[in-house]
Amino acid sequence: MAGITDLPYRLLLRSFGCELAFLEMVSSQSLVHESKRTRRMLSSSAEDRPLGAQLLGNEEEAVLKALENIRPCGFDMIDLNAACPVPKITKKGKGASLLREPKKLRSLLDVLVKNSDVPVTVKIRAGWDRDSVNARDVALHAEDAGISALTIHGRTKEQGYSGRVDYAVIKDVKEAVSIPVIASGDAISPQMIRKMFHETGCDAVAIARGSLGNPWIFRDTISYLETGTIPERPAPGEIANTMRRHLDLICTFYGDKSGAILFRKLFSWYVKGLHEIRTVKEDAFRAQTREQMLFLIERIRNYAYRHPESAYEGFVLSC
Ligand SMILES: Cc1cc2nc3c(=O)[nH]c(=O)nc-3n(C[C@H](O)[C@H](O)[C@H](O)COP(=O)(O)O)c2cc1C
Predict the structure, then answer these.
(1) What is the CB < 6 Å shell around ligand 1?
(2) Boundaries of CATH 1.10.1200.80 in the chain?
(3) How far are the Cα atoms of 13, 88, 125, 167, 196 from residue 155, in angstroms, in the given order?
(4) How far does residue 132's CA lie from ligand 1's centre (Å)?
């Protein structure tokens, strides 16, 4: 997830059972004129494996140059983004726009496959809008280019991140291709993830928003798929310990000052569901230093859940 899945985030999620992760998408252009921000986005470590890099681009030359530039980083796979719905991206013919040009997408993938020494994958959506759902067609073109797997978000570009995920389209893609299919969309609880496997026959499920403030979703999903049970919700003390660990990772990576500021949004995600936590959350949004943030994290230990039952209770009903 752009703006979220940096190295600290990935390392934390891996400690909870995340088996494969991707960098935030990086634009091919920014890789050509590599900035400090881009270099930071490409940062990884030995424990941060296996790891895929995701490229955003629509020109063969730029994509190829980007591939050359990131080769020394030694990523385990290269993914091409044909799914991003943000207007400033699609207006330039990138991201989900490529769904409207399956042949162009195919030739971009051709170039990547021919020149990459690691597997190439693609991320697509169900289609551009509900009148042009074409994931099956796009997937077949992509497979022809020789990619090793594909991820499909079961919503159209028009839907963005809301509305129903179309399980039938994902199933259709899975049945049409012989490469592994990773399904994405509303993977926000172990129950919804199991539903995704059952409804679509996919080979893997990508967890995105479900991990915000809830790295336990990986542990819980593994347990649920293997035994049908979900471990107890983390106690506020355990949440505080995890937040401390995450803050440490962030401060080591970005420095204490930027780390504290960047942790603000994470703070509010972690404390979601705690009773009468609002003022602490507001204080966290004003915290300037690592020490102030640590002080607020310690306060979490004295709070309790508004609804002590499972974190996923509401989602059980909806699936
Ligand atoms: C803030 C945000 C940033 C995202 N950035 C990316 C990205 O860089 N590359 C990508 O392939 N998908 C990205 N996604 C899409 C997610 O990977 C996922 O497909 C989508 O959120 C649907 O899954 P979910 O409903 O389980 O969250 C992003 C989603 C969000 C909310």
Answers:
(1) 1-4, 24-25, 54, 81, 83, 123, 153, 161, 184-188, 208-210
(2) 236-302
(3) 25, 19, 6, 9, 13
(4) 21
Q: Which of 9-23, 30-44, 66-80, 262-276 has the lowest mean pLDDT?
A: 30-44
7-227 carries CATH number 3.20.20.70: yes
Whole-angstrom Cα distance, residue 91 to residue 85?
A: 10
pLDDT at residue number 314: 57
Q: Which atom of ligand 1 is nearest to the CA of 209?
A: 27
Structure-token pair, residue 36: 């400090």
Catalytic residue positions? 84
Measured by CA distance, the residue closest to atom 16 of ligand 1 is 208
Residue intervals in the chain for CATH 3.20.20.70? 7-227
Write out the CATH class of domain 236-302.
mainly alpha
Q: Which residues contact 174 (CB under 8 A, 6 or more apart)?
A: 181, 183, 200, 201, 202, 203
